[in-house]
């Protein structure tokens, strides 16, 4: 008769497989930059062009190390973000100085007036990343603290276009060593819409 210890030897590989599988699933759910705990999506239709930009984001009060963002002045981070698509940087935002909550608008007041009067085209002035939806397409969002000495990476997040929808996509995260963002509002606007419909969707998110 075989001992319980003998049977246990055969159970160890099974346990290892289950543990590794659980870790892999957790990483898939969490994405590359953190673990989203809420949000909704329905997928973007293939073949359309979109503008993508951060409407707002919130970061943790301190770095993952527990240190202040600015060790000298005790100021909040100077936030800016970049969008990478097909291994190319296609957009860099303006910097929001000394903020834990950064807000961006792709259209200024003067620019909006010029668009409505037909004096300039929206695609020449909009401050957002232009992306075309295709099968398996994704982009990466990189958020930084614009420090005079070095550019501290706040988060790197990847988004599959099949996981997003037109309008605002909201995500909440648990801060981690790789991601100090706690809340993100990511806007996706259909760039194939008529001009004034694009403006309406930018100014009045769905």
Can you walk me through this structure?
There is one protein chain. By secondary structure, the chain is of the alpha+beta class. It has one domain: C2 domain (Immunoglobulin-like, Sandwich). Helix content is 21%, strand content 34%. The strands form 2 sheets. Strands 1, 2, 5, 6, 9 and 10 form a 6-stranded antiparallel β-sheet that branches. Strands 4-3-7-8 form a 4-stranded antiparallel β-sheet, with no helix packed on it. It starts with a helix and ends with a helix.
Provide a compact summary of the structure.
The protein is an alpha+beta fold and 206 residues long.
Q: Main beta sheet, described?
A: 6 strands, antiparallel
Tell me the number of helical segments per DSSP (H or I, 4 or more residues long). 3
Low-confidence stretches: 13-35
Superfamily at the CATH H level? C2 domain
Could you name the key traits of this structure?
206 residues; globular; Immunoglobulin-like; four-stranded antiparallel beta sheet; 34% strand; six-stranded antiparallel beta sheet
């Amino acid at each position: 008769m075989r001992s319980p210890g003998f049977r246990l030897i055969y159970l160890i590989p099974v346990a290892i497989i289950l543990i590794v599988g659980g870790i892999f699933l957790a990483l898939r759910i969490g994405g590359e930059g953190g673990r989203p705990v809420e949000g909704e999506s329905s997928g973007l239709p293939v073949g359309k062009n979109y503008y993508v930009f951060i409407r707002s984001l919130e970061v943790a009060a301190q770095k993952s190390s527990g240190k202040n963002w600015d060790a000298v002045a005790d100021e909040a981070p100077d936030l800016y973000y970049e969008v990478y698509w097909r291994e190319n940087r296609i957009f860099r935002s303006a910097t929001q100085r000394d903020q834990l909550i950064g807000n961006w608008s792709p259209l200024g007041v003067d620019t909006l007036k010029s668009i409505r009067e037909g004096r300039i085209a929206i695609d020449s002035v909009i401050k957002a990343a232009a992306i075309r939806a295709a099968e398996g397409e994704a982009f990466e969002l990189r958020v930084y603290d614009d420090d005079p000495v070095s550019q501290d990476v706040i988060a790197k997040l990847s988004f599959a276009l099949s996981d997003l929808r037109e309008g605002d996509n909201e995500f909440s995260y648990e801060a981690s060593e790789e991601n100090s963002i706690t809340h993100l509002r990511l806007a996706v606007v259909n760039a194939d819409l008529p001009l004034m419909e694009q403006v309406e969707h930018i100014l009045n998110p769905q």
